[in-house]
Each structure stands twice: as C-alpha cells, then as structure tokens.
Design brief:
Blueprint lengths: L16 H7 L2 H4 L3 H17 L5 H19 L12 H13 L1 H5 L6 H37 L4 E6 L2 E7 H26 L1 E2 L15 H7 L4 E2 L3 H6 L2 H28 L6 E2 L18 H25 L13 H21 L4 E2 L1 H8 L6 H10 L4 H17 L9 H7 L7 H5 L1 H7 L8 H16 L2
Helix pairs in contact: 3-4, 3-7, 3-9, 4-5, 7-8, 7-13, 7-20, 8-11, 8-20, 11-12, 11-13, 12-13, 15-16
The protein binds arginine.
Arginine binds next to helix 7.
Length: about 450
Amino acid sequence: MATDKLWGGRFSGRTDTTVEAFTASEHFDRRLAEYDIAGSRAHALMLKSCGIISEADCNTIIDGLETISQEIADDRFVWSAALEDVHMNIEARLTEIAGEPGKKLHTARSRNDQVATDMRLFTRDAIDQLQADLTALQYALVDLAEAEADSVMPGMTHMQSAQPVTCGHHLLAWNAMLERDWQRFGDCRKRVNLSPLGVAALAGTGFPVDRNMTAATLGFEGVCSNSLDAVSDRDFILEFCGAVALMMVHLSRMAEELVLWASQHFGFVDLGDPFCTGSSIMPQKKNPDVAELVRGRSGRAVGNLTALLVLMKGQPLAYNRDNQEDKQPLFDSFDNAHACLGVLAAMVPNMIFDRERMRNAASRGHATATDLADYLVRGGLAFRDAHELVGTAVHLAESSGRELDALSLEELRGVSDRINEDVFEILTLEGSLHSRNHIGGTAPDQVRLAAAQARQVLAER
Ligand code: ARG
C-alpha cells in the first residue's frame, strides 16, 4: 500500500497535501464524536447478535470505543487531518487500541450510512435542546404577560397607532409565535428520528444485518425505508434549519420591537443595565445590543438554510461528497439559536415597562375611533356609514389639535345625533380594552385567561 489511508488499497500515489487539507473535515466534524461512537457501539452489538463477528471481538471493540470516548472527553485524543474525518480518526485509533477486532467494525457499514446516522443523532439532540430553550423563554414571556395584563399600549398597524391593546396581549402574541416554533421542531423530530444505519454505501449489504436492532439501540423510532434515500437524504437537516430560520425570524421581529420600545422616542421599556451596553464615545448611551444582535444573527440562520437548499439542489442519488458541507450550517444554526434563546430568556424577566409612557402613547392618535364607529352601529347605523361619520369626527379633532375623546358632546352630536353622554365610556382606553373580551381579544380578563392556558400548555410538555 503506497498510502497510509484506510481506503488506500487501490491507490499507488499519495494524496496531494493540498487535497488532504481541502477534503479534511475532522476539524469540524469531530463534534459528532460521541454520536459516532454510539453508532459504532450499536453496530458492533448488532454484528455480534447476528453472528457476523464473535462475542470476543465485539467486547474488544466496545472496550476500545469506551477508551476513545474517555480520551476525547479528556481532550487527550490526537486528531489527524490525514485521517480526513471523525469516522476514520476514531476507527484508526480503535485499531491501534484493539488490534485486529478493530478492523472488523466496518463490516456491513459505510461512512455513508455512518455519517447520516451521526447527523440524525446530533439533530435529534439539537431539537430537544432548542425545545427546552423555547420553553424557558415562553415561561418568561407568559409570566411577564400576566404582570402586564392591565397595562395599555398602542396597538399598531403600519407602525401607526391603530387601537389600544394590553401589553400582556402583545407579549402573548410573541408567545404564540414561539409556540408554533416549538411544535414545528416536534413535527420535524418525527422525520429526524429514523435510522439509516445498515444500508451501507448505497445499496444495502450482503450481510444478514438487523437494522431494527441498531435503530432500537440508538432510540430511533424506525428505519429509513430505502437504502439510496437513506444515505443521501438530508431533508431532516433542511427541515431543522428551516424551523430554526423561521424561529430566528420571530426572535428578530421581537428584537426589533424591543429596540423601538427601548428608544427615547417610545420609552416603553427599560431592558435593564445588565442587558445593555454603552458607547465608547457618547457617555449618555445605553444601547439595546442584545436585541440588535439577535436581530442581526437571524441573518445567519436564513443564510444557513439557503446554503443547505442550494447544497442539495443539484445532487443525484446517492451519497456525494457535497454532503460533507451540511455540517457547519447545521452546527451554526443550532449554536446561534441556542445562544439567542438563552440570552432572551435571561433578559425578559429583567424588562421593566413604563406603564405611564405606554398609556400616554396609547391615548394619542385617536385610537378609539373604531370603538366610536362600533357604538354608532349599536345605535342602528350600518358600519360603512358609521366609519364615514367617525372619519369626519377625527378630522374635526385633528383640525383643532385634539384627540377624539376631547371633543365635546355637542361637537360629537354634530357628527351624529345618535351619540349620547354614554359615548365617553367607550372612548376611554379602558372602555375600548375591556370591550374586546372574547377568545383572542385584548381585554385584560382574556389576557389573564390566555396566560393561564399558555402556562398549562407549557406545564404539560
Ligand atoms: N466526511 C464525510 C461526510 O461528512 C463522510 C462520508 C464520506 N463518504 C465517502 N464516500 N467519501 O460526508
């Protein structure tokens, strides 16, 4: 053998050093080591139970893998780029430790089903972690929503004051987005949690393997049904990164609102000194960098998804080396999402809302105009006509620099004689809020109910 490669038999020339460096992935896929070892252990046990290797060989392999696992945990393992990837680094070391039996581990297996298995195990753990992170953030939001169930703030459309809402209601809208994200990860997990192991390179193996056995050992719910698809399918990574990208878009939208709310112009929220940073030149600054970075990092999540979609687009069946490129986007999407969820979950309980500022903002912009139109409808007008009349009332208020609720009863009766003294109840912020008392509405009572239900959902996970 003219080369020292595990696949060197048919080669007579050595690998060019630039090629060796270019093709190596061990510097990033070593992160899969614990999954690779778990997969190898399951594979060895199956080979033994199917009579493909002896019990003694199996035991030697298992012991060797245990030693390697310890070496890696203690940072004593010597990684080699010449051995390309995590799989061959571990296998070569196993043979060093275990001798001949180590060379038998790769019977009825290929790196193609091996790496697909590792990636599924990694992604399954990543989902479990992000779901736990989401739950922590959701609890924080629900707690805060309950505390702010009565606080009024301007609800906006087109970034213009639209109707008053409760701050708690707004926070529960964020929770609703995250709730879908949590569910989306759960949906994705079903398709992640299938075992490709045992299909070998692409066509299956001539050895009498038991794929259900390795699947069960590794906690998979079943096996991938087609060998060609099993080694080439990366949908589970795309789905996961898709779910991450969408979740990051949600976090980015929240972050954007926090940046606005924390500005002097809004002044709705103080994000807390421990969660802000200063400026090196402007002494007065207290910047919402955490929120800005979350917003900024969502770009990476979208970029990773795009990279993966394009990675898969031109690939014929079955395995192609392109797939080695699936790892960094996946790892980055996970790390990034984990970090963003963690910092937000820490920040949310520290946020202090300025209820006075929010109320003042809500009372500007004729936010109860729709309530006045509804009032006229209850008095017998068609909504479209009521809308028209209230428009003239707003015009009247606007032209004299006042809010709608500052118009006198006479002025209002000039708009419609169906208006009576009781109109002022519905023109108040509280009147408007409390009237929207149905499922999904902004009334404080509904917010308390919705928060309790949301907490129940979290507790039942
Ligand atoms: N490092 C490779 C990857 O991540 C492992 C599979 C290599 N398979 C092969 N036939 N070269 O995809």
